[in-house]
Amino acid sequence: MQVYKTKAKKFSGTDFHEVHRFYGTSAENELFCVQIKENMKNKQKYLISVFPTEGPNIWDA
Fold first, then answer.
1. SS3 sequence of the chain
2. Sign of CA dihedral 26, 23, 49, 30
3. CA pair distance 46, 24, nearest whole angstrom
4. I need a labelling partner for 5 at 20 to 30 A (CA). Which of 41, 51, 54, 59 fits?
């Protein structure tokens, strides 16, 4: 597996979470995305989703 891009999106206001998005390629050269939510107060991380994708989208611009 090879990860080629990372991105974090911060939420404002009273929400203390960040969503991290990682892109990678599988052993079969298929592109996928992993999303992880991080609680910034206690540094806990939660797996949100893993899904196939065609590449980074507008969220990552």
1. CEEEEEEEEECCCCCCEEEEEEEEECCCCCEEEEEEEEECCCCCEEEEEEEECCCCCHHHC
2. negative
3. 18
4. 41
Q: pTM score, two decimals? A: 0.67
Report which residue type is found at 34. V
Give yes or no for a contact between 54 and 31, defined as CB atoms under 8 angstroms apart. yes
Distance CA(39)–CA(41), nearest Å, equals 6
Separation of alpha carbons 9 and 18, rounded Å: 6
Amino acid at 60: D
